[in-house]
TrEMBL record:
The protein, known as: Ubiquinone biosynthesis accessory factor UbiT
Function: Required for O(2)-independent ubiquinone (coenzyme Q) biosynthesis. Likely functions as an accessory factor.
Organism, as annotated: Rhodanobacter lycopersici
SUPFAM superfamilies tied to this protein: Chorismate mutase II, SCP-like
Keywords: Ubiquinone biosynthesis
């Protein structure tokens, strides 16, 4: 009886933590809605986007199915989130009725959408990485690992195939994302880079932005390590071999779509960091 009471109290405390996480995520969604609302006019779009809303709902339903969340419950949740996002933008509750949409603003040649320097005031609305960290911790580790393993398999397909990563067989290299409080230990097993649950022999440590700048080649490894934005710790030989491999990566072999996505992501992260620094 006492043990059950204790277990119930612990369970309820964890439910409270999950509730906090949901509100944090809702607050993050609202900030992003604000950003989307400010970007839409210069992207030539009106505020209300029923097609996007329906895609958002469909994605939600697919994930709900995989997670065993009843479809009706998920639908209610998305109704609430979308109604809130519409209200934030001064739109009526019902997408089909249009709401108080602004007239479309055509894309302005003077302001290309990828000129991020002009977006600084809006980028400041994004939470800085240290505020995103608690949200990431809500994501189960095995999801994080599966995502990372899939991304590495795509980016590093060519070097893995030609044996350039063989030095990683049975070795453990850590990647520490300092501002997100994340650390993954990678090893090569059966020709695949996997995340292992073990201590690293050597680690590369840096902020999310600097690691993304490295992965996207927007900044070269020499500069990042020289400025100590990236730091190698542990077994120097393993660390240096990994670092040299990054320099010699056959970037052309990375699928073009992924290269573009990485490049955009890195530029976005760098611009957001600048925007926060100027605050
Ligand atoms: C946030 C946006 O604005 C509205 C709200 C949406 C949402 O809550 O997901 C989707 C489309 C828009 O009608 C957006 O355009 O992305």
């Amino acid at each position: 009886m006492r043990a059950e009471r204790f277990a119930l109290a612990r369970t309820r405390a964890t439910i409270d933590a999950v509730d906090d996480g949901m509100l944090l995520l809702l607050a993050a969604r609202r900030r992003l809605v604000r950003l989307a609302a400010r970007l839409k006019p210069s992207a030539g779009l009106v505020a209300s986007d029923p097609a996007r809303e329906s895609a958002v709902r469909q994605r939600g339903q697919r994930l709900a199915r995989r997670l065993d969340v009843p479809a009706g419950t998920a639908a209610h949740l998305f109704d609430l989130m979308i109604a809130d996002a519409r209200a934030q933008q001064g739109l009526s509750d019902d997408a089909d009725q249009g709401g108080q949409d602004r007239s479309p603003v055509m894309l302005d040649g003077m302001n290309p959408p990828n000129d991020l320097s002009r977006a600084a005031p809006m980028l400041r609305l994004l939470p800085p990485p240290r505020r995103i960290a608690p949200l990431l911790r809500v994501l189960p580790a095995r999801w994080q690992h599966a995502l990372l393993e899939r991304a590495m398999a795509r980016v590093l397909a060519a070097p893995i195939a030609d044996g350039a990563l063989d030095f990683m067989a049975g070795r453990r290299l850590g990647i520490e994302v300092s501002d997100l409080g994340l650390c993954w230990v990678l090893s090569l097993r059966d020709g695949r880079l996997v995340v292992v649950d073990d201590r690293p022999e050597a680690s590369v440590r840096g902020s999310a932005t600097d690691l993304l700048l490295l992965a996207s080649r927007l900044e070269d490894a020499d500069t990042l390590f020289f400025q100590r934005n990236l730091v190698l710790t542990g077994d120097t030989e393993l660390g240096l071999t990994a670092r040299n491999l990054l320099d010699r990566l056959p970037w052309e072999s990375v699928p073009l779509g992924l290269r573009i996505a990485l490049n955009r992501g890195a530029r976005f992260a760098r611009a957001a960091r600048e925007a926060h620094r100027q605050r």
